[in-house]
């Protein structure tokens, strides 16, 4: 089985386009098509559906994909273990990340990352929706939600400390809540999943259901609406530390911290060995985030 054919097949699974996948590997469309034909001949099955507009994997191709990825990761790891092959990660690294976090904290670090690893190129997709890593062909995902899929491995990159915030204009108009019970009379700007808040109190955990005047699925939109005085918000320190320093937002109910074990995670499929390009990305940004002040201290 030809390793170059496998590389092309894995990239084809991500792009659904033989020419685009081949271009990433420096192959012409004709050579790329021939490589896929030879891979199918060696396997004795059809791996790819072809139409005039696009290609897609057959059922056999879908079943074969994770094994092909494992083979490539094993070869790359074996070469790295003895100093053979390339001395630095290369190829295309496909990443998915939450939109707000990606814009605020990944993109500012990408120039330095690419300068350190000049043989890498990046395909970064920013979305607040949770995507399937294998189905989407991603090497790594950045997430701030609890990891529930046992087929994934997660490495913590940074804490995700959250707090209640409001703008000075909102407090001037509506008053500043001093107790948890007072929250029921206030309006909130929230992510859809945060209408039930749990606080740590001297007598134990206390759950409060809040009234959302505005719900949105984008963290920056939540922050900006909070600054405009629409309501109180649950905000991550990494998203609002500058606004807190400038006085555009203030923390409220600091003596009642939110009960949360959220963090920023780098996630990758457990079926794959940790490829050098994935390890390089995780190590680089873990170090970068460790040196930044925006995460806040744990409550």
From TrEMBL:
SUPFAM superfamilies: Periplasmic binding protein-like II, Winged helix' DNA-binding domain
Domain HTH lysR-type: 1-58
PROSITE patterns found in the cross-reference section: HTH_LYSR
Alphabetical keyword list: DNA-binding, Transcription, Transcription regulation
Top-rank taxon: Bacteria
GO molecular function terms noted in the UniProt entry: DNA binding; DNA-binding transcription factor activity
Pfam families in UniProt: HTH_1, LysR_substrate
Keyword Cytoplasm on entry: no
Cell inner membrane recorded as keyword: no
Matches recorded under PANTHER family: HTH-TYPE TRANSCRIPTIONAL ACTIVATOR TTDR-RELATED, HTH-TYPE TRANSCRIPTIONAL REGULATOR
Family recorded in the similarity comment: Belongs to the LysR transcriptional regulatory family.
Name assigned to this protein: LysR family transcriptional regulator
